[in-house]
Amino acid sequence: MTDQAAGAPPSAGPPAGCPAHPDAVALSGLPFQQTPARLYQDMRRRHGPVAPVLLDGGIPAWLVLGYRELHYVTTNDELFARDSRRWNAWDSIPPDWPLMPFVGYQPSVLFAEGAEHQRRAGAISDALVEVDQFELRRHCEHVADDLINAFAGRGQADLMADFAHPLPLLAAIWMCGLPESETSDMVKDLTTSLDAAEGEDPVAAYLRVQARIQGLLDSKRAAPGPDVTSRMLAHQAGLADEEIVQDLISVIAAAQQPTANWIGNALRLMLTDDRFAVTMSGGRGSAGQALNEVLWEDTPTQNFIGRWATRDTQLGGRHIKEGDCVVLGLAAANTDPEVRPDALGGVAGNSAHVSFSHGEHRCPYPAPELAEVIASTAVEVLLDRLPDVSLSGAPEELAWRPSVWMRGLDALPVRFTSAYVV
């Protein structure tokens, strides 16, 4: 979910004919950006494990805060389904609604259900499982070195723009087999389509991405290679071109923003927390420890929209009506005191978080493993190349992006001893 999509403030109340809970919380504002954990704790105390919320424009929905409740929703696809055409609020939503790119039905794996979802998600998993993780790590080391070489002589950098954002996108494009000659334009258009700046046209950029992916399919059909695209074309599921195009874009988009923010949030933790400070011998705390802690405490995907109730039901003491929208509160569930009474104490080595969601529609295997290879390589190479890297300012000066959906920094300015590259 991009920052642009979450930028419009909600109206004072819901549209006519679209009932909302009288105590609903607007899903926007500074508390979601600066202190989300505290806000989710307050919402849980006031509303229990399922809270009434207002999306952009005052559109009502339910936010699942409880860990057990989120597991229930994500493991009951027949009751809480992904096809957004079931939504009972469509009559109240304008065509230019900011969240339309993320809830408007598309013929992609993201909205597929049942056997159709299994067919398409299975093809993605089978294509990804063949990625050689050692080769991926070597490629990420090469990309990380190239990115660092570009700013190493300056003695300062913005690790978000210069490093964390481009690296996972370059890795994802490489896994898909895009020729290096087309990488630069693809990165630019994908970045614009996922997170457009003012004056940029995300729709036009997305159409160019689609055209490039279709061109990639045409070239791989003529000359297959050891890449995700070729394997999806040859898969026994018999995917149509338009299905592969949509699903490859979903794979690349899912790899870019969340992994970039995972890298950035882990680097922030390691640069601001004394547990990860440089020791007398020059070493730091484990990058793996920081990456795992971030998934529990500062997960990149904070909230995910959504699921839609297929019939009237009960959830967390709430009456959910047929067609109601349910937002998955991944960050809130990870800090649910019902399952994590010890707060930070129990996260080391614990992977029971829901940062990659859960159930049939979770990130397809082995995508989380590949994301971890990308993120861990990025952090380790950076700290190896720039061992004295430190924040340029005070930790409290770091600003989070204005989004309730993704948790990531606007910028991560650092300084270090200049290292000229020959």
Automatic annotation (TrEMBL):
Residue segments, region Disordered: 1-20
Biased composition (Low complexity): 1-10
Gene Ontology MF, one: iron ion binding
Gene3D superfamilies per the UniProt record, alphabetical: Cytochrome P450
Chain coiled-coil ranges: none
Family: Belongs to the cytochrome P450 family.
Protein name per the record: Cytochrome P450
